[in-house]
Amino acid sequence: MRRTIGALAVTAVVGAGVLTAASPGDAVVAARPKPTVVLVHGAFEDASAWAPVTRKLLAEHYPVIAPAVGLRGIAADVASLQGVLDSVKGPKILVGHSYGGLLISELAGTTADVQALVYAAAFIPEAGETAGQLNSQFPGSLIGPDTTHAIGPELYVNAASYPSLFAAGLPALDTAVAAAGQRPILAAAFDEKIAATAPAGIRKFALVATCDQAIPPAAERFEARRAHASITEVDSPHAIATAAPQAVVDAIHRATR
Fold first, then answer.
1. What distance, in Å, lies between the first and last C-alpha atoms of the chain?
2. Directed axis angle between helix 245-256 and helix 51-59, to 10°?
């Protein structure tokens, strides 16, 4: 009887040891390092447009990079950003806003360890398409000669048009500050063809800004469906990182999983 009880006790201890041995592995999986989030801004803005999203991500201990985009055209901007991405080791999530969606689509095919792509009120192109073409295939965009002006080869949004194009409903002073500090884009960039479609094997998440008057929401929706992206519709103007930063962060959470 004592031998039997002893044997059962040993078996129970060994069994418990096996169960306990599995839990540290689970903890390691749960605690693995977060991917680096690379926030790529669009035209007529700079990296400060991502500030509300960056703050939230840093508070959650995500590594974040919001590089300056030259807005010199797709090929030039992709080449510039490629060096930045190549310096980041480990898994990455690329997030693009507006014109930035064109750039992350190309960069996804030439960058190691891209886990997912997040398009925040952004273009999702296929090879051979242009931003101008994508923006004109559905009605609703206010970008045009009445809302923009050129200084040499560079294009600016008129200060009076900036609120309606980008930031309807946001505080007037904040919008005026953004308009005053906007980064111009080469007008020719809108007619430059995309060299490559984002790889089909990389997961994609799209936020459709339903109040967008820069890129028509119908265009965002069409491109997201065509790319087989997971779609979330957000009651937001084009400046989604300012108007709905939590929605952008939630999309990044889904991309991380």
1. 52
2. 50
